[in-house]
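A protein record pairs a chain with a discrete description of its three-dimensional fold. The shape at a given residue is found from the number at the same position. Here is what such a record looks like in full:
>
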Amino acid sequence: MIYRGSCHCGAVSFTVEAPRTLDVERCNCSICTKGGFLHLIVPAVNFTLVTGEEALVSYTFNTGVARHTFCRHCGIKPFYTPRSNPDGIDVNVNCLDTRPQAIRITEFDGRNWEQHAHTLAHKSRV
């Protein structure tokens, strides 16, 4: 299924191909908790930035592998390149304009990321 999504102001829009029922993670690390991010990790080929490349700004921390992308106008992070899957894209399900039929949420212990990151590695494979 093709889902459409966007930031709050609409400057950034995208499409993502994913199943009708989404398997996603809710992470308890500080950045995900504070930002309300609900993770849908997909292969990069399943993601298309439709509008707003010029509106995106990036933030990195710690190892610098994850590239957190925000809309410079409204501050929303609709997607990013995750450290666990640098070959994929991690979409914030809360930013999908097309609502999924169903969502299965798995709790992810991001506070102890090093011990659990391997459980996400398969998500960006085609």
In short: The beta strands are 2-6, 13-17, 21-27, 38-43, 47-51, 56-59, 67-71, 79-81, 88-92, 102-108. Helices lie at 30-35, 113-116. The mean pLDDT is 94.
